[in-house]
Amino acid sequence: MLELAILGFLYEAPLHGYELRKRISALTGHVRPVAESTLYPAIKRLEKSGLLARTTEPGSVAAPRHVLTLTDEGRQELRHRLAQPAQRDVSDENRWFTVLAFLRHLDDPAAQATVLRRRLAFLEEPSSFFYEGDRPLRAEELNDPFRRGILTIARATSRAELTWLSTTLDSLEGRGTTG
Amino acid sequence: MLELAILGFLYEAPLHGYELRKRISALTGHVRPVAESTLYPAIKRLEKSGLLARTTEPGSVAAPRHVLTLTDEGRQELRHRLAQPAQRDVSDENRWFTVLAFLRHLDDPAAQATVLRRRLAFLEEPSSFFYEGDRPLRAEELNDPFRRGILTIARATSRAELTWLSTTLDSLEGRGTTG
DNA sequence: GCAGAATACATCGCCTCCGAGGTATGTAGC
DNA sequence: GCTACATACCTCGGAGGCGATGTATTCTGC
């Protein structure tokens, strides 16, 4: 997920690590802060795999910067990760949001729609958090207000996302009002 | 988060690992599956720290079971983790839902309310995912439909949760219609 | 009688994440 | 001149998560 964010931001423009960190923090930092000790090793990993290259530039303010640029392989890797996300990237909202944040980099609307349909399929699976035997319990059936909250919130999210998914899919497939 | 779920389920009743796994899978498994190779070492960790004890029983169906019971220290530890969750447990929805799932085990409504107010404070912090310089961008300002989706969904979730939080806080503080 | 699934538990090695700590430079306030 | 902070990068060790794999039993379907 972190690697996806790095690839995603660098796909748009070369950046140095410190700036990258600020962008990632803005994207997911309020939910999950990114430690520097996580980011820099991740950059090294991607460099080692040949997905990005670095050039040193004098720092505009202080220490010299390492400007990071995606290689062709890196650009290809991003498109691959976006087009074929792991199931966890689809089911876990944190990861899914990262996929969404960069999905525009898949230039084929059909490929984008395919990814959205994976999420749609996931959301349409019947699933709950609490069961009585095998039967999923509805919010109304729980007398624990906190567990009721979980179901209420999850339901609201799911409804909003389904609405958004269907209008976006329509528009990607040329059936929308905005093209 | 996994440890919290283990402590939470065992607080309600002694269970063996396999049953524990099914309960945890029902709670968070559709979003984040729990691997056995994660669960069993986690159980060992908690046992080693003296938070739970195991007794072997003949399996009702197949292999013998290890029935896990929380020690007094374990029960105390759960209450502590619920009453003073790490900031990440408050900000990350996955973790937060786990806290909520077991918050009923804090017997003091005031302590429960304190935890909910932490989440409230987090949700009320101004935050976005995308910025133009320092100014947070609203969904309407983005022409990327996917990023617009992120903001739309996050906003719907936030609104639902704020509503739920305020009614639940009211009722915990004796100002509600049901409390 | 045999395959396959479910029950039930476990280890190994790899990978990722993170807190703590370290290095160095430039800017702002007092 | 000193402190504090922002910029900019890095390593180390520990902890946690996970896929692959192993072991043993019982139940179900054919």
TrEMBL record, chains A, B:
A Pfam family the protein falls into: PadR
Domain Transcription regulator PadR N-terminal: 6-79
Domain of life the protein comes from: Bacteria
Coiled coil (residue ranges): none
PANTHER family named in the record: CONSERVED PROTEIN, PADR-FAMILY TRANSCRIPTIONAL REGULATOR
Name of the protein in its database record: PadR family transcriptional regulator
Native source organism of the sequence: Streptomyces gibsoniae
